[in-house]
Fold Asparagine--tRNA ligase.
Amino acid sequence: MKTTIAKVSQHEGEEVTIGAWLANKRSSGKIAFLQLRDGTGYMQAVVAKNEVDEDIFKLAKNMNQESSMYITGTIVEDKRSPLGYEMHVKTISLIHDSLDYPITPKEHGTEFLMNHRHLWLRSKKQHAIMKIRNEIIRATYEFFNNHDFVKIDSPILTGASAEDTTELFHTQYFEQEAYLSQTGQLYLEAAAMAFGKVFSFGPTFRAEKSKTRRHLIEFWMIEPEMAFTTHEESLEIQEQYVTYIVESVLKNCRLELNALERDTSKLEKIKAPFPRITYDDAIKLLKEKGFTDIQWGDDFGAPHETAIAESFEKPVFIINYPAKIKAFYMKPVPERPEVVLCADLIAPEGYGEIIGGSERIDDYDLMKQRYEEHHLTGPAYEWYLEIRKYGSVPHSGFGLGLERTVAWLSGVDHVRETIPFPRLLNRLYP
């Protein structure tokens, strides 16, 4: 019977065959221990000299790292194993003998590993991170489907910028100027007026020349947009969504979290509601923490976000930023138009902003004024203004950065490990 490592618990006491690669091995005299991986998980296979043919035992002892095989044996319980099971081998059919695999069990430098990312993905830690990423994606679709959102795919090539054009990749679209998308938000607002509640999930691009551990050039965003929804209601949905994906990872990725030695007690505290702090109070808090140069109207950098997050065990919303440092489409606070109805959600443990959101301007005249202030002209923006002209309603939305969220839940230091093939300032390979 053919099966996978992830399903061996269903076959205790049975003889099965698994297609696998050799991740590592060790042997002592008359027994060989093979560490197998098959893409679904990792498992130990035990080859006893007195239980297999001589050529099989010789093969087991001499096989090279990352050799591929079909391996057949009996599944037995092993409480010492993270998986809880191991295989007692009967026979091995070698598919390909891998020679001189470059990523050995010894330590390698980051640059070397990044140059071999196509192979580094096979390692146990990287495998665990990608499985957690996959679980976040799966739980995301489940959450929004359960809450009656419609999935809408926004274009990657766009003629309009949602924010600062200096951070966009410019390209020639036949005879027109175009950009690689930095967000699907503008298109999702239009879709929300057709379907009520929508979300997108796709790649976004920022030509930001940053080398920090939180930045990628190409990253993935989950972006919900909701008609007839206030900023306050949006914050509640954000809390529910983040709580849901954290609970899903804790439930379905225990082996992966253990492989990463993640302190799950910190994640178990992540329950809605989340604390909130105004931008005004955040400035005061930062001054108390020694950031004496920070002034009202300044944007927050990574050190500021980390310092604020240290005061809370859960993610914290920083709300009502100054309008001048936020995007043109954010709705002003009615009693205080110099600040806007927005929030950044800052993850604990120094992982920074994972969500940015706001209530959008729904008044046609105010949006037209914003257009004039930001010099937004031409057909690339006219359609967005028309959303306010025909049946405008209060609406809100937000965007969650997938890679920063994966880094936080996985407990890894750098976002370059949270995407299969990262695009960094000086890296377009592999």
In short: The chain is about 30% helix and 25% strand.
